[in-house]
Prior knowledge:
Blueprint: E1 2-9, H1 13-20, H2 23-26, E2 33-40, E3 43-52, E4 55-69, E5 74-83, E6 89-101, E7 104-115, H3 118-122, H4 125-149
Antiparallel strand pairs: 1-7, 2-3, 3-4, 4-5, 5-6, 6-7
Amino acid sequence: MIITTSFEVAAPLAAVWSQVLDVPTIAHCVPGAELTEVVDDRTYAGKIEVKLGPIAVAYRGRLRIEAVDDAAHEVRLRAEGNESRGRGGASATVTASLREVDGRTAVTMASDVAVTGIVAQFGRSAIMQEVAQRMAQRFASCLEQELRTSPTE
């Protein structure tokens, strides 16, 4: 299933791009996520809890930065995880594209998501899209706060 989310950050493109690529610094901005290990400069382990309507699910897994295009301000990530309790799992390939719009940064994320287990049985695509957009907005707010409080380079 393809899930597309978008948001704007009240900060210049260069600052947002730099921050988005710094996974250890912004991992806490992903709602329900916790970074548990930095495996290498492109691979991270963690966990995330997500509530989809009446279903709450927790995953443990890995995130890998597969490709970075600095000129186009595009990054491709691969995430895979297994339910902490249960037999299900999830995987996603996420492409984030950033562009500057009137001094702000517009971010579009296209996620190709596959789920198994209870989420696959009960999760509807409309609910997943709604939750993903809400999580993206919360991420954007946290990212803006990080950029306001971090020292400028």
